[in-house]
Amino acid sequence: MSNIKAWLVSFRLRTLPLALSTIFMGSIIAAWQNSFNADVLIWAAITTLFLQILSNLANDYGDAKSGADNESRVGPQRMIQKGVISLKQMKTAMVICVLLSLISGITLLFKSFSQLQWQQLLFFILGISAIAAAIRYTVGTNPYGYRGLGDVYVFIFFGLLGVAGTWFLHTNIWQWHVLLPAVTIGLFSAGVLNLNNIRDLDSDRQSNKITLVVRMGKKAAAWYHLSLITAGWISMVTFIYLNDAISHFWPLLITLPLFIRNILVVFRNKEAQNLDGELRNLALSTLMFVLLGGVKLFF
């Protein structure tokens, strides 16, 4: 395997559509309210991609050091595990991603606010928190991803902060109803993580990586998955109803069969490796959900 291909595999490109969904959703809600800023969309997307890649690299690094990536792992083989990328190289790549995230994030703040304000400081602190959270997921003496808290991280950063924060950077005001679509994307993102953890249940249990699925078991995890997807849809439908916005957002309803299919696959699945493709499918379904929610803004 070439070195470039090895790094592309470590970047986990299939996770990037899910990261972009957060930025697109916040931007679409802002555009619907006539508060769209193209610079915010561009720089928020770039920053999010760097943060997502950082999280992926840190996950590889942490799992390799802890032994969670081993021969019994079901999912795609990691490059450190294969010996293609060293721990030192991965650590260097993480540092580069941190620096790039800081540069793009600071640029985003200056593009979002016309002058230096307390909001810039607040978002800078949130950005630092996002970087720390991306690393601490599996790295360190007591990573929270090994204590069943990964779902909380995903919900907060991919949902609440990702969507509502992007919307605020466009509008520079606050309205509580934006939390409803933020909750939707947060729950769908937690669903992707849940699929990952169901797939890796046996290897995580053997390596003492205590995910939420390890705590609750496979059967309960399937019902948990159903609740995540259902609650996500209810939250978005509530937003549409409260804002009398069905004429703008009805195209996203086209994706409902994709989510139903995803739930049925989880309940019917017998082999862990069969869920690997569903991670990609749910991430792409979420991105399609978001993009169709904005299609009426342009047509």
TrEMBL record:
Instruction: Show the catalytic activity.
Output: an all-trans-polyprenyl diphosphate + 1,4-dihydroxy-2-naphthoate + H(+) = a 2-demethylmenaquinol + CO2 + diphosphate
Q: Does the keyword rRNA-binding apply?
A: no
Q: Kindly list the biological process annotations in GO that this record carries.
A: menaquinone biosynthetic process; vitamin K biosynthetic process
What's the main place this protein lives?
membrane
**Top-rank lineage group of the source organism:** Bacteria
Does Transmembrane count among this protein's keywords? Answer: yes
Q: Which residues cross the membrane?
A: 40-58, 92-110, 122-139, 151-170, 176-195, 222-242, 248-267, 279-298
Instruction: Name the pathway it acts in.
Output: Quinol/quinone metabolism; menaquinone biosynthesis; menaquinol from 1,4-dihydroxy-2-naphthoate: step 1/2
Q: Which GO terms describe its molecular function?
A: 1,4-dihydroxy-2-naphthoate polyprenyltransferase activity
Instruction: Name the top EC class.
Output: transferase
Its membrane topology: Multi-pass membrane protein
Q: Indicate where this protein resides in the cell.
A: Cell membrane; Membrane
**Keyword list, A-Z:** Cell membrane, Membrane, Menaquinone biosynthesis, Transferase, Transmembrane, Transmembrane helix
Instruction: Give an example GO cellular component term for this record.
Output: plasma membrane
Q: What is its EC number?
A: 2.5.1.74
What is its biological role? Answer: Conversion of 1,4-dihydroxy-2-naphthoate (DHNA) to demethylmenaquinone (DMK).
Q: Say which family it is in.
A: Belongs to the MenA family. Type 1 subfamily.
* PANTHER family linked to this entry: 1,4-DIHYDROXY-2-NAPHTHOATE OCTAPRENYLTRANSFERASE (PTHR13929), UBIA PRENYLTRANSFERASE DOMAIN-CONTAINING PROTEIN 1 (PTHR13929:SF0)
- This protein is called 1,4-dihydroxy-2-naphthoate octaprenyltransferase
